[in-house]
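Quick start: read one record
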Amino acid sequence: MSNIMTINNMEDLNSALDAHTKILLGFYSEDSEESKAIDHQFNQFSKNPRCSAIKFIKINVNQLQEVQKRYEITTTPTVLALSNRDLIGQCEGIKELEGLPKLITQLELD
């Protein structure tokens, strides 16, 4: 079973937040070339055995503007690390996605 999922509504997001303690939320915009980096990064890291306890969740900000506002997302791609629903770190923009390995380590240790 894949540990990557795409969220299409608030109910699914809340269910995922209830079901998983360590989550990476990847916010993207389908009309942004830079946002496609989330797919590559999530696919790469989700296959790593050390990331098996992390749920990777992709959210299209064009479809779920409520979530975009809730987490104050101002640019895509943005990745948020949540541990027990608490924000413990984030990467904003394509340049900061290079910091994703560090963010994953931070999430693992929390």
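The chain has a mean pLDDT of 90.
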